[in-house]
Amino acid sequence: MQVFKFGGASVKDAAAFRNVSFIVQKHSVSGQLLIVVSAIGKTTNALETIFGLAHQQQNYSSDFFALKTYHFSVTQELFPEKGNPVYEALEHLFVELEEKLQNLVPDKFDQQYDQVISFGELLASTLLHHFLKAENLPAMWLDCRKYIQTDSTWREGKVDWTWTEKLIQRDLPEMLKNQIIVTQGFIGGTSDGQTTTLGREGSDYSAAIFAYCLKAQSMTIWKDVAGLLNADPKIFSNTVRYPQISYQETIEMAYYGASVIHPKTIKPLADRQIPLFVKSFLDPESEGTRIGNCPHEKLAPAFILKQNQCLISFGVKDFSFISEQNLSTIFHVLSELRIKINLMQNSAISFSICTDYHGARMEKLMETLRDQFVIQYNISLQLFTIKNYDSESIRNLTSGKEILLEQRTRNTYQFACRA
Ligand code: ASP
Ligand code: MG
């Protein structure tokens, strides 16, 4: 059996849905298939805006209306026949979503975020399920919240693997015998029936969870690029595709911020030696990339950019050195606030970290540590990483940039600079 993941771009309009159906049709004849789908187009961003407005008790109705119109215009193109049950199913979801938005309470921001933002995937999977059925494919809709079990770490649910695998193994092999399962990416559920999300762009991870639990033959991520490239073609020119690459290399690239695959995706696949294919939905017959257990020669340097970075330096207040005790204090607060370090370095009297910028969390960090350290910071920075660098790639990338922090290991070169 195989797991396919279709991201937002692959279902952004009616033509894209038809293309997905074409790909599914082609593959479903050769074996069992489970499909994980993300919210269509930029729905998740739109939902975040709506949720933000609703949370501040501002008027969200025009954004809500736009989102609804978007979904129904795709639907109308796909289902000219008005009586199709998809209309009622979507209408029902929008009513439920609006109810949630109208009943927000001031605290519990993260918890309510999950209850609201998850609707993107519920809508997309409903739409895809009905469309595949209309195309005479034996599709069924699966509520993944009943299978992917997480704790209640809102916005980043931690998967209960034992329980999740048990539930999936209990039901899905039987369902897959004669049906194509269509389910949601990005979301999960707690044991008391609340919806959680797995972190932005988490649908890849969802697909890997299903692949792992079903011991799938392979997993495929269908993207708008030709495979796993050495850089994002929207940012860098002259990109090259890796025809095959190891789990290890991929996991590191994802860790440094290559947005092509969610960082948590690789581990479950590597644990069960399930190959991951990254293929273009625009050119489904082309080779793409195979990620697996493969040895390879020196790879082309990979370039990764993380935007909106914050560089924070913690200095000691007397003239003592930065001690393990100081570091332990800083790490403890970072972990409490769920601030992730992208790069760190220490000198005799200060310790510096580069992290993604989150206004509220930064303020809390300053507030907590201000008494013990002299804190300096810069925001709106860029963090570049070159994996498998050579001197030419470093020269080209750093040229003309004002570097605030840099670090070089045997394989990786990183620097933070002004944007
Ligand atoms: N729709 C979600 C997001 O945009 C999950 C995903 O696309 O993987 O973050
Ligand atoms: Mg998405």
TrEMBL record:
Domain of life according to the entry: Bacteria
EC numbers: 2.7.2.4
Keywords for this protein: Amino-acid biosynthesis, ATP-binding, Kinase, Nucleotide-binding, Transferase
Entries under Pfam families matching the protein: AA_kinase
Catalytic activity as recorded in UniProt: L-aspartate + ATP = 4-phospho-L-aspartate + ADP
Protein name, entry field: Aspartokinase
Functional pathway: Amino-acid biosynthesis; L-lysine biosynthesis via DAP pathway; (S)-tetrahydrodipicolinate from L-aspartate: step 1/4; Amino-acid biosynthesis; L-methionine biosynthesis via de novo pathway; L-homoserine from L-aspartate: step 1/3; Amino-acid biosynthesis; L-threonine biosynthesis; L-threonine from L-aspartate: step 1/5
Family assignment from sequence similarity: Belongs to the aspartokinase family.
Organism for this UniProt entry: Adhaeribacter terrigena
Xref: InterPro entries: AceGlu_kinase-like_sf, Asp/Glu/Uridylate_kinase, Asp_kinase, AsparK_Bifunc_asparK/hSer_DH
